[in-house]
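User: quick one, sequence for these C-alpha cells?
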C-alpha cells in the first residue's frame, strides 16, 4: 500500500502504544515522511525493538518506553523530548488495553486498569503535549478510539467501550478548548483491524464469517489504513478539521 505524500520533515511526533499493530504502522509512516518519531510502549523491549527497526530502515526514531497512565513516567517521556528536540508537533494517543469480561464478573481492578490505560493516559499525554504546542501556536493531537465507543458496542467489553466513548467525548472538548491556540484534536474510530489484539478472534472461522457479512467492503482493515487517515489529520491538508471522530471500519457503521 502506498503512503500519501505529506511532508513531516520538521515534525516531532510521539505515538503511544507504538511497539506493534496500529501504533507501529502510524509511527513507521510518519517516519517514512521525514518525522522524528518517539516510539512509546509500556513494554520497554517492544519500544526499543520498534525504534531500532525504524532506525535500521534509515529513519529518525527514539524509544520512549513507559506507562502513559503513570504521571511520573509521562513526565519522563516529555522531559526526554524536551531535552532532545524542545518541541512536539504531533501526538497520537494509541495506547490501550481490551479486557474481555461480563459486567457481572468484571473486576474493579481490570475496569480501572482499562480506564487508566485508554483514557487517563490520553489525558495525561494530551495535557503535556498541548502545553508545548500552545507555545508553538500549532499542533495536532489524534486519539485512536474505536467504533465500540462511538456507535458499535462490543460484547463483553464494557470497560473498553466506556473508555473509548470517553475518549471521543474528550476529543471534542479538547478540540474546542485548544482551537484558539491553533491545536487541532481529532479521533479515529477503527473497526476490526488485523492486529495482535484481534488475532484470537481472527482464528475463529465463525467470527470471521460474521465480520465479513457485517462489513460492506467484505474484509478486515489493515493498520496502514488507520495510519493513512492519521497522516492526513496531522497534515496541513486537514488544517480546517477538528473535533471529529472518524470511522475506519469498511462501512460497518455508516453514521
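Assistant:
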Amino acid at each position: 500500500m502506498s503512503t500519501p505524500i505529506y511532508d513531516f520533515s520538521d515534525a516531532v511526533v510521539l505515538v503511544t502504544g507504538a511497539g506493534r499493530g496500529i501504533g507501529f504502522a502510524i509511527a513507521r509512516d510518519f517516519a517514512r515522511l521525514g518525522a522524528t518519531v518517539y516510539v512509546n510502549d509500556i513494554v520497554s523491549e517492544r519500544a526499543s525493538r520498534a525504534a531500532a527497526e525504524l532506525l535500521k530502515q534509515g529513519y529518525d526514531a527514539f524509544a520512549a518506553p513507559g506507562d502513559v497512565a503513570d504521571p511520573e513516567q509521562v513526565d519522563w517521556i516529555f522531559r526526554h523530548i524536551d531535552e532532545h528536540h524542545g518541541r512536539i508537533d504531533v501526538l497520537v494517543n494509541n495506547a490501550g488495553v481490551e479486557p474481555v469480561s461480563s459486567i457481572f464478573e468484571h473486576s474493579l481492578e481490570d475496569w480501572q486498569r482499562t480506564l487508566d490505560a485508554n483514557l487517563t493516559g490520553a489525558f495525561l499525554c494530551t495535557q503535556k503535549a498541548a502545553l508545548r504546542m500552545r507555545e508553538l501556536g500549532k499542533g495536532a493531537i489524534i486519539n485512536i478510539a474505536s467504533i465500540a465507543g462511538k456507535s458499535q458496542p462490543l460484547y463483553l467489553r464494557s470497560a473498553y467501550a466506556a473508555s473509548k466513548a470517553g475518549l471521543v467525548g474528550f476529543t471534542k472538548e479538547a478540540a474546542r478548548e485548544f482551537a484558539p491556540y491553533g491545536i487541532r484534536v481529532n479521533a479515529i474510530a477503527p473497526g476490526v483491524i488485523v492486529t495482535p489484539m484481534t488475532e484470537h478472534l481472527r482464528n475463529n472461522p465463525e467470527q470471521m464469517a460474521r465480520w465479513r457479512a457485517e462489513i460492506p467492503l467484505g474484509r478486515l482493515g489493515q493498520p496502514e489504513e488507520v495510519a493513512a487517515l492519521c497522516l492526513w489529520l496531522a497534515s496541513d491538508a486537514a488544517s480546517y478539521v477538528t473535533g471529529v471522530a472518524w470511522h475506519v471500519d469498511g462501512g460497518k457503521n455508516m453514521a
